[in-house]
Amino acid sequence: MVRAMIELKELTRKFADKAVVDRMNLSVQAGTFFGLLGPNGAGKTTTLRMMTTLLRPTSGQILIDGKDLTRDQLDFKRKIGMVAQHISLENEMTAEENLQLHARLHKMSKKVRDERIQELLEFVELSEHQNKQIRMMSGGMKRRVMIARSILHRPSILFLDEPTVGLDPNSRRKIWDLLKDLNQDGLTVFMTTHYIEEAEMLCDDVALMDCGKIIDRGSPAELKDEVGEFVLEIFKDGKTEYKFFKDRERGLEFANQVSGKVTLRKSCLEDVFVKLTDHGVGE
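Below the sequence we write its predicted structure tokens.
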């Protein structure tokens, strides 16, 4: 599989006078499972729409393997797969028919597309449901069809916008397993999400985004280490206060000196966001 590298240079998108994405600089190495994490309205989806040619930047550059995507969008589109936040399948068609349609758009020969479609239906565990209409499928099954469709033409980069939004826990974990499998095979994955657990489970590298800007960057472990391994929640007078500690012993020592309801736990990525922005990722 071809390796890929993504670079954003001073990427900006304005709506009226407001910069929804504000001079973003970002580099993602080939083979990485990268997560762009932030609250609703942070600019994640706008960034992804620009990176997949659905929206033109106001200014700045998007480079794939050192090439500006605005120079040759057709070649760029051959390199990417996309799973949007909203279901974008033909409801009256079957799973297999949806994949056939996509394969034809990529001008795949009948022999190649038939073999590839059966391979992917087996990969996403939908071989027994390939003749079922999309409208009769569960949300998790639809998402798996979308993932199969997105990698049908063997892209080198897979873009995912909130890939498990609205799914039940079992369906989410099945999607996670599929995505981890693809990344282990060398596929570069760029995902937006506001699910903390999702980012921690899947991503090697995470950028925290707020108000159109990258405010921190690193592996989940590195980001959590910045604030401290443990967090003490102190609920008093109708408000929760957070205190961060490098080890459990210091947290317990502090907890014994304060009044109110206290909870000591291990920190997570949302705690990093709380400390940096005073609000959580899901807000």
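Residues 61 and 118 are 38 Å apart (CA to CA).
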